Amino acid sequence: MESPMLTVGVFVAESLPGLILIWNRHLSPAARARRITPALPSWDIGAYDIAMLLWMVIMGGYLLQVIVTAALTHSGLNTVTREVMGGVGFQFGMLAACLGFARLSERGHGYSLPKAGFIREGVETFLKVLPAIFITGIVWSLLMSNLGVNLNQQELVELFRKSDSPVLLGTLIVMAVIVAPVTEELVFRAGLFRYLRKQPPLSVLYVAFAGCAAAFLGFDGLLKVTRHATRAGGVEALWGLAVALGAFLLWLSPTFKRLIARPTPRWVAVLLPALIFAALHANLASFPQLVVLGVLFSLAYERTGNIAVPMLAHALFNLNTILLLLAGINS
Q1: Smallest Cα–Cα separation from 57: which of 108, 109, 114?
Q2: pTM of the model
Q3: Among 5, 115, 314, 320, which has the highest number of CB atoms less than 10 A from its own CB?
Q4: What angle do the packed helices 308-326 and 155-162 form, to 10 degrees?
Q5: Is a pLDDT exceeding 50 seen at residue 28?
Q6: Where are the domains of the chain?
Q7: Angle 79-104/47-71 helices, nearest 10 degrees?
Q8: pLDDT in tens, 224-259
């Protein structure tokens, strides 16, 4: 049985090094007197190129997931194992798409790939992230508790807790500690954040989000119709059409056009990739912590100019979470 005092003790012990680093590196008078120029250079990439990268990532992930799932359909493996292996295929598909973009696309030659000399910065970033994550988690849990909202752990976390297969557990650990940090940092920090950091017009984001929302509702509705859920699918498809029509009519407004012609604010460039990163984990309990994690990883990447820094910090964070779970501590 988990001891509350032990949990608090572990969190305090893990937070202290990070708090000391935050004071020494950022908050002390000497640190504030230093002017640090971000090492991350600007990226000469357009809306078409970033759209191509994201399309390759999504299609690569889904394609390999479908192939792996289909290959294991008659393998005799249980449903949980097949789902995990499908997730493995999705991660490797995304990673292959990132590397393919970096090697094959003309603009991809400026894509951030890991560089040497990242270990110290990566470890320090991980330590500085911990107190922010712990505090955010405590505040969020208290808020949701007062609102009467039940928070459930991520499905992957439950798999770690309940898995009795050494092979499955080993696969999950390798994916969480090695593959997922590399892939997700290449997509969200080296891709989306670095593009938004050059402050493209807000119209790019508007078209992207309106188009994705309309396409998702439309295609998902049509998919439901093909599965004989005609009424629900038809309603969803109509919502997709309404979103597309509304976005087009809003686009015709001269006032709105002037508004979205402005460059993307810096706070949007930092926050938006973190929000998408957190939302794709599809878990309310960890949502604000993952937003904070995404923001801090973007800032670390910008400061050092080396995508390997948030990759290592991300890997250490996931490893720390796994070790706490295996030790019976609610992280």
Answers
A1: 108
A2: 0.86
A3: 314
A4: 50
A5: yes
A6: 4-200+263-326
A7: 150
A8: 776 666 777 778 888 888 888 988 888 888 888 888
